[in-house]
Amino acid sequence: MEDFDVTVDVVVVGAGAGGMVSAWTAAQLGLEAVIIEKAGVYGGNSALSGGGAWLPNAPFFQRLGEGDDPEHLFRYLQTIAPNVKPERHRRYIAEAPRLAAAMETTPYYQGGKGFLWIKGYADYHPKLGGNPKGRGLWPQPIDERVLGEDMTTRRGHGRAGRLAGTPPGMWMTSADLHDLMTLRWGTLRGPLMLLRLGWRSLVANLLGWKMITSGAALITRLRLMLRDEGVPVWLNTPMRRLIQDDAGNVVGVQAERGGRTYRIRARHGVVMAAGGFEGSKEKRALYQPDAIHAGTQGSPDNTGDWIAPATEVGAALDLMDDAWWMPALSFLPGQALGMVPERQYPHQFIVNGDGKRYVNESCPYTDFGHRMIEGHRTGVRHFPSHMILDQFAWDHYFFRGLPGRPMPKEWLTSGMVKKANSIGELARLIGVPPGEPRGHHGAVQPVRPRGSGRGLPPRRGRLQQLLRQPEVQEPEPGRGEARAVLRLHRGAQRSRHQGRHAHGRERARPSCRRVADRRALCSGQQQRRGDGQQLRGAWGDPGPGHDVRLDRRPRHR
Question: Is the pLDDT of residue 68 over 50?
Answer without folding.
Answer: yes
